[in-house]
Amino acid sequence: MSQKQTDSKDNKPNQSMPAGGRVVLPLMPLRDLVVFPHMIVPLFVGREKSVTALEAAMLGDRMIALAAQVRAQVDDPSPEDLYPIGTRAQILQVLKMPDNTIKVLIEGKERIRIIRFLQVEKYVGVHYEPIKTQAGTASTLKALMRNAGELFEQYARLNKKIPADIVSSVAHIEDRERFTDIVAAHIGSKVEEKQKLLSAVSPQERLELLVRLLSDEVEILEIERRIKGRVRKQMESTQKEYYLQEQMKAIRKELGHKDEESEIDELAAKIKKAKMPPEAEEKALKELGRLERMQPMSPEAAVIRTYIDWFVSLPWAVRTKEKLELRNVARQMDKDHYGLKKVKERILEYLAVRKLAPKMKGPILCLVGPPGVGKTSLARSLAKALNRNFVRISLGGVRDEAEIRGHRRTYIGALPGRIIQAFKTAKSKNPLILLDELDKIGSDFRGDPAAALLEVLDPEQNASFSDHYLEAHFDLSEVMFIATANVVHNLHPTLKDRMEIIEIPGYTLEEKIEIAGKHLVVRLLEEHGLTVKDIEVSKTILEKLITHYTSEAGVRNLNRELAAIMRKITRRKVEKRMPAHVKKIRFADVVKFLGPPRFLKRRGEKRDAVGVAAGLAWTEVGGEILTIEVTLMPGKGQLILTGKLGEVMKESAQAAVSYARTHAQEIHLAADFYQKTDIHIHVPEGAIPKDGPSAGVAMATAIISALTGKPVRKEVAMTGEITLRGRVLIIGGLKEKLLAALRAQIKTVIIPKENGKDLEELPVEAKKALNLVMVTDMSEVLPVALADAPVKKKRRSRKTRIVHQATTADQPAGQVCMLPSPNGPVWPLL
C-alpha cells in the first residue's frame, strides 16, 4: 500500500466511531462478484487477509465493506486493483469448513464510496461514505421500472435458474432502489457491467442500464434457446442414426462383413503403403480424418471414400525395371513391323540418348501417318521391348479440358482426368502412354484440351502435374509419351512445337504383300484356330486382294478382309466340308468368300485423250489419281467449275485459264479465243470434296490440250502448283502421290523441281519403276505431257543429270530428268 493511500495503525479502529466524519470498516475484496444492497449471498472466504477482516467484523457490529476486484487473478489486491464503489454488508452467518475455508452468509445494506485505505494489522480497513441516491422524474422512472419488470419476467422464463417466487416477489416491489438491486443481483452479466450498475447514482441512469442489460441477456438467451433446439433435434437424429448404425454393425458382423472402423484402418494402412509424397500423404490423411468423423451413410462420406480410393490406387512409387538394350528393342520392332526403317532408327536414337543420359528431358515423339500403317502397334511393341506397361488414351473427339485435367470435386460424379486414370490402369509410375488421334482434339466453351496437354507434354513442367480432382502434384517425368496423328496441319501449333514429328508414309504394294504374308496371315491363322496345313495364301492372291478389295495406305482393311476369309474357312472346317489336303486359296475362292471386287485397279487413261489430264492428289489414306476433264463450248468466255472443288482449287483453275490466255500466241491460239468459248472444267467423283493448289499444272495442261486439240499422253501424270507466269511451285505429299501413280501403272510423272529433296523418302522399287521429270515452268511441262507438241528450232541446253541408272542396257528405266527453263517448250530427255 502506498503511504498516500494508507495509514498504519497499531490498534484496532473503533468501527462505531467516525474518523473525521468518516466510518472505518474492514475490507473484503471480491473476485468475479458484485454484491448489491438488499442482496443475500453466500461467500467462501479463503485468503488470509479476508479471513482476518471477517474476524475483525465479527468482533464488532458484524458490518464489513465489500469491493469487487478489477482483475480477479490478483491474490493480494492493492487499492488500484479494486473498484472505488462498493457495498456495506452485514454478516448473517459464519461457518468454518473442514478445509479451513469459511462460508459466510452476508446481506448488502447500502452503496458506499471508499475514501481511504488503511493497513490494520493483517487486514485492510477503509474509510467510506454512503452514496445518496439522486431524485428523478417520476413518470420516466415508472416507465423504466415497468419495462425492466417485463424484461425480467421474460429473462426468468428463458433462464430456468431463477425461481418463480423471485419473479413474483420482484413484481410486487414498489421501491425503485430495492427493485433495481434485486433484479441486478439475478442477472448473469459480466462484473464490469454490474459494477457500472452499482456505481450509478441517478435512479434513471440505473434503470436505463438495467433495461439495456436485461435486453442483451434476453437476446442472448433467445439465441441460446434456438441453438439448443437445433442441437436437440440434431442429437435426436444423431442418436437415431447411431442406434441404427449399431444395429447395422451387428448385422454386418453376423454376415461376416467388415465394419467402418476396420475400413478406416485399412485405408490408413493403404495410404502408408502407397509411399506418397509428403504433400499427397498429408492430403489423404486429412480426408481420412474427415471420413472418420462422418456418418458412414452420408453422401459426403461416399465422395471422400472414392477420393481416398483414387489416392491409394495410384502408383506413387511403383516402377517397372526398364530394359534399354537397343538390340532387343530393334529385334522386337523388326519382328512386329515390316519396313519403317526411318521411324525405327529415330526411336533407337532416342533410346540411346536416354541410356547414356538418363536424366535428360528428351522430346515427345509424334507418329504421323494414314490409318492402318502401324502407329499404335509400333508404340505397343516399343513398350514391350522396354518392359514398360502400355496404356492407350484415345483423344479423338475430346472437347472438354476436364477430360485431361479432371473435374473438381464440387461436381457430382467428379473423376480424375484421363492422364491420372491411365496411371491407375498402368499400375506403374513409368509406363509408355500413347496419346492416340491427337489431331482429332476439338475445343468449345468447356475449354481447349490441347492447351491442357501443353503441361503434360512439356518436360520442364510435367514433373509437377496437377489434376483438378486430386488437388495434389503427380510426377509425369518418368513417363514415355508417344503421340499419333493422321494429319500434321490439324495439330495445335504450340502442341506441335513440343513434339518431334516422325512421318510414317503409306505402304507400297510390295510392302503390303510382305506385311500380310509375314505378319497378318500368321496371326490370323492362330486367332482362328487354323494352321498352315489348312490354308495357303500366295503372294499373287494377296496382290489381287489388296488391289481389288482394299483402297488404303495402311493394312487395316486388308486385315479385315483376310479375317473374313479365315472365318469362312474355319466354318467349313468345323462343318467338315473342307478337303483334308492343303487348301490353296484361288482368286475364285476370294470372289466366292468376299463377293465381286469392290475396287477396279486404278490405271491411267487407255489412250491419249484431248482435254483429259491425270493429276495426283493426297488424302488421309494415301495418294490418289485425280482425273481432270476439260471441254469447250460456244459461249461468252465463261469458266465453269464442277466436281465439288474448294476455293483454292477454283483459284488454281482461274490461274490456269489466265496462263493460257497470256500465252495464246506461244501455243498457237487466236488472241480472242476466250471471247466466244466457254471452258468447263470437271473433276470426276463429284460427291467427294477436293481442294488444294497441286492440281494447277494438270488443269493448265488439260485446258491447253482442249484449246489446241493435242491429246495428253496417257502414261503421264503430273502435280504442282501453277502461278500466273507459269512457274511450277513445290507441293506436299509427294511420296503418297508417286505411290498412287505407281499403283495406277503410270510410268512418267511430272513434279516440281523443288520437290527433289523429298525423293529420298521414296522406296527404291518406286524409284526404279518411275521416270520422274522435275520442272520449274509450264513451258517444260507441255512437251512432256502433250503428244505431237511443236518443237521450236532454238538451241537449247541439254543439261540433264541421270539420278538412277537403267536397270538393264536395253531398257532405260528409273531416270530422273531435271530440265532447265528454256524460252520455249522443249522435249525432255527420257
How do the helices and strands line up, and which of them pair or pack?
Layout: E1 8-9, E2 23-30, E3 40-45, H1 48-59, E4 63-68, E5 85-96, E6 102-120, E7 123-130, H2 138-158, H3 164-171, H4 176-185, H5 191-199, H6 203-255, H7 260-274, H8 278-293, H9 299-313, H10 326-336, H11 341-356, E8 364-368, H12 375-386, E9 390-394, H13 402-405, H14 418-426, E10 432-436, H15 449-457, E11 465-466, E12 473-474, E13 480-485, H16 493-497, E14 499-503, H17 509-527, H18 539-549, H19 556-574, H20 587-594, E15 612-619, E16 622-634, E17 639-642, H21 647-662, E18 677-682, H22 696-708, E19 716-718, E20 721-722, E21 728-729, H23 734-743, E22 748-752, H24 764-769, E23 771-775, H25 778-785, E24 816-818
Parallel strand pairs: 1-6, 2-4, 8-13, 8-14, 9-10, 10-13, 15-19, 17-18, 19-22, 22-23, 23-24
Antiparallel strand pairs: 2-7, 3-6, 4-5, 5-6, 6-7, 11-12, 15-16, 16-18, 20-21
Helix pairs in contact: 2-3, 2-6, 4-6, 5-6, 7-8, 7-9, 8-9, 10-11, 10-12, 17-18, 17-19, 21-22
Characterization of the model:
With 830 residues, the chain is α/β, with parallel strands linked by helices. Helix content is 40%, strand content 17%. It has 25 helices and 24 strands. The strands form five sheets. An eight-stranded mixed sheet has the order 17-18-16-15-19-22-23-24. A five-stranded mixed barrel has the order 2-4-5-6-7. Strands 9-10-13-8-14 form a five-stranded parallel sheet, sandwiched between helices. β11 (465-466) and β12 (473-474) form a beta hairpin. α8 packs antiparallel against α9 (299-313), α10 runs antiparallel to α11 (341-356) and α10 (326-336) packs antiparallel against α12 (375-386).
